[in-house]
Every structure is written in structure tokens, then in C-alpha cells.
Design goal:
Helix content: 40-55%
Radius of gyration: 22 Å
CATH class of one domain: Alpha Beta
Number of helices: 24
Strand content: 15-25%
Structural class: alpha+beta
Strand order of the largest sheet: 2-1-6-3-4-5
Distance between the termini: 37 Å
Number of strands: 19
CATH topology of one domain: Aldehyde Ferredoxin Oxidoreductase,  A, domain 1
Shape: globular
Oligomer: single chain
CATH superfamily of one domain: Aldehyde ferredoxin oxidoreductase, N-terminal domain
């Protein structure tokens, strides 16, 4: 039966106790991003730092989770160790469906466990298990141990951290079911601060599907759009790495710490090259028929003369850009090797790669020395970068411990702020121009997925500030609706408002279906109000000089246009938060 309220499990790690509570408001915030903001306002401590034990770690799903394909994401919300402000990170895998089968709309975790622990929750249980012996164990090894510890299968999701998370890194991610991640803004550091090595969500219950003919008919219609048309071919075939060659061709691919936007050597790490040389298989998040997760392989010699072990490594455009073009590592297998090391450490691959690109240029310029980097960082030096990623994950010295709190923090200490490729956090893999740079720098998650600024740059040569900012605000509102459902963003061309309304109606959420525009606007404003309440000031955001030195297909970046966009977007964000 459809519920008009939310069912939320709250867990206090300090006491080891939990309970299930009900919360009204489904018709106002839908779920996902909206519910996360509501829960943070209820359980969060706005005036306390991110590492205060009372700060919550929140996981939420949406009203269509489990009912329709690609409604497969979970929203994770927390106060970020990166900037000490309210943040969201999104991930696929099995977590969303596991929460649905556990009969939960959200999981809220507060407090700090007495020792490194694993939290296991389900529809009929909550248990905190001692895992102190896993301290320092990497993500891959701990995953095997946790699977043996937790038991169960099917609708079970395992969320875990590596050494980076245990060390409170602002670049630490939360690994979800091996190939997916809550990657950005340091959710893994929050888990580590709470002494949580892992969270196991057991989807040990059932939920009924709507009765009648309308729902199965609509489900088939959506499923057919996803599988029987070419709308999702890009994501299944080459996946997002198809962007590498496209962006390189139009001078929009960040290369060599954004000193270039194109390079002929990139042919070695295109989506086509990965598919031809490294691809083992495709896999998918639970409830998704598309299979956009591309899994390649690396091999490592463990015994002479020729004994090897093989590991499977997932790859997407962003990790390929961060550990490939930004570091000028142009061999597909070498890129997978660096990604693999970042995965073991539990690091966000994007931030780790971009941070090391800055460190490499800083070393070249003499701003830092090998005393800081330990290894001789050099663009193209794949094996050295693997070692550096490990140093970053474990925090081998003062330099790496500072760098793992954010590239700009290291740059402010050592120098080199002007070439730090930071737009709120380490940049995403698009050097398309002014609109994207401003959208990521000021955007809510400092993400390329906050709005399609990268797409706007490629379609518009005119420099109309009002028009561009109108697009960013409007596009964000549409995406906020999807992240409140919670839909995979790859399905945004399918789940238009009319179809979303039909889907909501088919499962019984008529009021929500009738008020989607009001809901999305309310959630958009609520998120900004919450972020502002934790200290965010869009007028205080700076864009490093390196971004004004970029040349794209449109020519050199126009600094006046960039600053005008930044000023107008900051003003509009402030207005939304009123």
C-alpha cells in the first residue's frame, strides 16, 4: 500500500540503539533530495562542525524506487569535511532497492561508535558489529570480509570505506556494491569519523505492486523506451567514455592540469580504445535494464616469472579524465591501474586525479619538492601516480594529509592557487567554457550534474548573461525533481514531467503528480536555504586564474563574461534561499 508518510530508521551509534519513526510531508518534498534536506534540518547541527558526533549521515530514496526502471539512485546527505557545509552525494548500486525492500524511505545515522564497526539494518533488525580488526584494510579486501560477516544475498547492499575514510579525508568516498560510489565531498570521511567501516542494508522484506491494468501497462511502456529504442544506446555501448574523443576534438577536454584542452595522445584512452582493449563486461544497478557500468580489467604480477592476478575495475568518463588526460597517462590499462588504487584507498577518483595533477605542476614549478611528494611526480608517469594515490589515501606525510583535505587548501599553504583546478571542489571533466565553469563553481554540489552548463556552452556562442543564468536555474529545478524521485540522470530525457506524472499516478501518488512543479521549486529553495544556513556564500566563491587561460572551440575564455555570469548566478542563488 502506498504511504503518504515517510518511514525512517534512526540509529544512534553512541548508544547502539535505533528506532523507526514516521514523518509527514511526502506531497511537499517527494523523497530523495527533498527528504534529505528535511531530515538534515531536523537532525543536523547547523552551528557545529562536520565532525561533531551528533551530525547525521542520511540516506534517502524516492516514491518511485522499486516501481519503475532507473529509479535506482540513493541520496546521501551530510555536513561535508570538504567545506563544512551541507552537501549531497548520489550513488546507484543496490542501495536504493535494498532500502525499499527493507520498507524504509530513509536511514539517519548519528553518534559515533565506540570502535570501528559495521552497521547492519533491515526491515526487522538493526545490529552494530565490531570490525576493529578491519582498520587500515582496503576497500576490496574489506568487502570480501564484510560479505562473509553479514550473510544474506539478493537485495543486500554493502556500503564501505577504505583507509582514506578512516583518516577523515575530504576526498574519501563511500563504496557501494564495488562498482558505484557516493563519490564527492567526503561522505567517506563522515563515515570514518563515526567509526563506521561499513553499512549493510538487508532488503529482507517485500512490498506490493499496484493493482489494476494501468501500472503494468505503463511499466512496459517505460521499459520499452529504455530497451527497444536507441535513447539509451550511448550509455550501454561505449558509456560516458565516449565523451573523451568528442571533447578532445572540440578543445574541451582538460589535459595536463588544464594547461591544454586537447592532445593527440588522447587516442590511447578514448571510449573506443577502452572498449576494444580492456572491456570485460557491462553490469547495471538494481532495477536498471540499461547496463551502463563498464568493467575493464587490470593484471598484476604476484610471482616470477609470469604469474598474474586479474582485477575488475569499472570506468566512466570522469575517472578516465581525472587519472588519464589530467595526468597525461594515455594508456587505457595504466589508467585502470590508477583507478584501481584509488578504489582500494576509498578515494573519490575525480578529486584524487585532479589533486595530483596540481601537485605535478607544482613540483615542476619548484613550489613543492620531492620531500613533499615522496615520489617523483611527472605527467605521464603511471606507476608513480599509483604510488602517489596510495600516499594520498593513507596520508603518508603532512603534504598528502593536507592535499586530501582539498587541492585549494594545499595550494593556499604551499602556493600555486592560480593553477589549482578547483570549482568548489576538484573540477569535472569538461573544459567547455564560461557557463560550465560558473555552474560548477557555484552549483549546489559543485557538480557537472547540478545543471547542464557543459551542454549550454556547446550549443550557444552568444554571451547573454541573463539567458545563460535562466537556463542554469531552470535546468537545476528540473534535475532537483529527478533527484527527489530518485532517478538516474541518464534517464532524464525519458522521465519528462508528463511521464513522471503518469508514473506517480499509477502507483497512487496523485497529489504529488498534480504538484510536481511546486514540489521541485520548494525542494530547490529548501536545499539552498539549508546550505546557506551552514555557511555557504556564493559571492565568496573564487574561480582560479587557470580557468581564464583556457581556449575552447569558441576561442579564449572571456573573463568579463565569466565574471558577469558569476555575479548574476550568485545573486539568483541568494534570491532562491530567501
Amino acid at each position: 500500500m502506498i504511504r503518504d508518510h515517510f518511514r525512517i530508521m534512526t540509529v544512534d551509534l553512541s548508544s547502539g540503539r535505533g528506532s523507526v519513526v514516521k514523518l509527514e510531508g511526502r506531497d511537499k518534498v517527494a523523497g530523495g533530495s527533498g527528504l534529505a534536506a528535511v531530515l538534515f534540518n531536523q537532525y543536523g547541527r547547523l552551528d557545529k562542525p562536520w565532525d561533531d558526533p551528533d551530525q547525521p549521515l542520511i540516506f534517502t530514496i524516492g516514491p518511485l524506487t522499486g516501481y519503475f526502471p532507473l529509479m535506482s539512485k540513493t541520496v546521501c546527505a551530510f555536513k561535508s569535511p570538504y567545506h563544512d557545509q551541507y552537501a549531497e552525494s548520489h550513488a546507484g548500486g543496490r542501495s536504493a532497492l535494498s532500502l525499499r525492500f527493507a520498507d524504509l524511505d530513509a536511514l539517519v545515522i548519528t553518534g559515533k561508535a565506540k570502535m570501528l564497526s559495521c552497521l547492519s539494518v533491515g526491515s526487522r533488525h538493526m545490529e552494530l558489529k565490531d570490525t576493529h580488526y578491519m582498520r587500515g584494510i582496503d576497500v576490496q579486501a574489506s568487502g570480501k570480509m564484510i560479505r562473509g560477516l553479514s550473510g544474506g544475498s539478493g537485495h543486500r547492499s554493502i556500503l564501505r570505506i577504505g583507509p582514506a575514510g578512516e583518516n577523515g579525508s575530504a576526498m574519501a568516498c563511500i563504496n557501494v556494491d564495488t562498482y558505484r560510489h557516493f563519490g564527492r565531498l567526503g561522505g567517506g570521511g563522515v563515515m570514518g569519523n563515526k567509526n563506521l567501516k561499513a553499512i549493510v542494508i538487508q532488503g529482507d522484506g517485500v512490498f506490493p505492486l499496484p493493482e489494476g491494468k494501468e501500472y503494468p501497462k505503463l511499466f512496459k511502456e517505460v521499459y520499452d523506451k529504455l530497451t527497444a529504442t536507441d535513447m539509451m544506446d550511448k550509455y550501454h555501448n561505449l558509456g560516458t567514455p565516449v565523451n573523451v574523443a568528442i571533447l578532445n576534438k572540440i578543445n574541451a577536454l582538460p589535459c595536463r592540469n588544464l594547461q591544454q584542452t586537447s592532445d593527440p595522445a588522447i587516442k590511447g584512452i578514448t571510449g573506443e580504445r577502452f572498449a576494444d582493449d580492456t572491456l570485460l563486461r557491462n553490469t547495471a544497478c538494481s532495477g536498471c535494464p540499461v547496463g551502463c557500468i563498464h568493467v575493464g580489467f587490470v593484471r598484476e604480477k604476484f610471482m616470477e616469472p609470469n604469474q598474474y592476478l586479474y582485477r575488475q575495475v569499472s570506468y566512466d568518463h570522469e575517472p578516465v579524465f581525472a587519472t588519464g588526460s589530467m595526468l597525461m597517462v594515455t594508456n587505457a590499462f595504466s589508467v585502470l591501474g590508477i583507478i584501481d588504487m584509488a578504489e582500494k584507498m576509498g578515494l573519490d577518483v575525480m578529486s584524487a586525479g585532479v589533486a595530483l595533477a596540481w601537485a605535478t605542476e607544482a613540483l615542476e614549478k619548484g613550489i613543492i619538492s620531492e620531500k613533499e611528494t615522496i615520489v617523483p611526480l611527472k605527467f605521464g608517469g603511471a606507476e608513480v601516480y599509483k604510488k602517489a594515490v596510495r600516499h594520498l589515501g593513507v596520508g603518508s606525510n603532512e603534504f598528502y594529509r593536507l592535499l586530501t583535505q582539498g587541492t585549494m587548501k594545499a595550494a593556499e599553504h604551499y602556493g600555486g592557487e592560480e593553477f589549482a583546478c578547483v570549482l568548489g571542489q576538484e573540477m569535472a571533466g569538461y573544459a567547455t567554457g564560461e557557463v560550465f565553469f560558473v555552474s560548477e563553481a557555484l552549483g549546489f554540489r559543485h557538480s557537472h550534474l547540478d545543471s547542464g552548463g557543459y551542454s549550454y556552452d556547446q550549443k550557444h556562442e552568444e554571451k547573454e548573461v541573463e539567458k545563460a543564468v535562466d537556463f542554469l536555474i531552470s535546468d537545476e529545478q528540473g534535475r532537483v525533481l529527478l533527484t527527489s524521485m530518485v532517478s538516474c540522470m541518464f534517464a532524464r530525457e525519458i522521465y519528462k514531467n508528463e511521464l513522471l506524472a503518469d508514473c506517480l499516478n499509477s502507483v497512487g501518488y496523485k497529489t504529488l503528480a498534480d504538484n510536481m512543479e511546486a514540489v521541485s521549486l520548494h525542494v530547490q529553495r529548501l536545499r539552498w536555504k539549508t546550505r546557506m544556513a551552514t555557511g555557504y556564500d556564493p559571492n565568496g566563491v573564487t574561480i582560479p586564474k587557470r580557468f581564464t587561460e583556457v581556449t575552447t572551440w569558441k576561442g579564449a575564455v572571456d573573463e568579463d563574461y565569466l565574471n558577469a555570469l558569476k555575479s548574476e548566478y550568485a545573486k539568483r542563488i541568494m534570491e532562491m534561499a530567501q
